Amino acid sequence: MNDRGAGTAAQAAVVYNPIKVDVARLKSAVAAAASGAGVRDVLWLETTEAEGGQQQTRDALAAGATLVLAAGGDGTVRAVAEALRDRDADLAIIPSGTGNLLARNVGIPFTRLEDACAVAFGGATRPIDLGVASITAKDGGIHEHVFLVMAGLGIDATMIANTRPRLKRRLGWLAYVDAGFRALPKAQKVRVGYTLDEGTTRTARVSTILVANCGSLPGNIELIPDAAVDDGALDIAVLQPKSLFGWLLIWRKVTWENRVLRRSAVGQKIIRFTDRAIRTELTYLRGAFVRLTVERPEPFELDGDGFGDVVAVGLTVDHKALRVRVPA
Q1: What does the alpha-carbon distance between residue 52 and residue 16 come to, in Å, rounded to a whole number?
Q2: Which of 15, 108, 158, 168 gets the most CB atoms within 10 Å of its CB?
């Protein structure tokens, strides 16, 4: 197999973050999987601090690639997906970095590089939804970005903004725990106005509000168990804990009730008897569109990356706008 430079024809391309991956090992694994699938021409495109993957993906498409492998963290995957929106090409995820959020939600192996490469070149194609966020920044500028898993406003976005980059590189997902412990003591609830579809605008004081395309997070957390990546809807979780005990109730729900109890008839009966205490702490909503507004600029995040302070966000879903390689 011959690697190709930009501007030459290619059947497949790898958009990779050199900080997140072992490039030599990645090239070896891709070469083996591509050769087994009869793919000879692979284009290699490295991300930079200025270009996180969108332009590299456009270059790959211009070179004729119909399969683009995103090798890096969630930010790289999100950037590649943004450029592949509604395009006639597949996204293959080679997980690395901290969260591997979409990989977890669609069943892509994230512990062995070789297994992920095998799925990339030999898996099935699954159309999935893309979340689309139209962000109004505090300076009045409006920017549109896609998200694959989750958008958040409130303490989760503050936590991500406070995450120490060096610690994130060393500890991965655990770095968010450090940021969370530093954010919680100073956290104040945010007054959010939210409009679901064409309904009435409501206001609430929340610790965080999350808008999800799918609902599984690292650490065996099933934040929104009914969220599906291809259902054409967004699922919203409104977290309003009144105390530390409220946070404990939410933690119990997302790590025990949602993940274990709800899978059996007996467990569902237990939930019905015990769920009343948490209903005001964690509320689930669903719709095709939601608009969020805040009284003063607040941090906002998409798929674990901070997008600065915002005053309003409109979020919708582009149904089955992305083709993803998943296990056959």
Answers
A1: 9
A2: 15
β-strand pairing of 282-287 with 150-154: unpaired
Joined tokens for residue 86:
């509604």
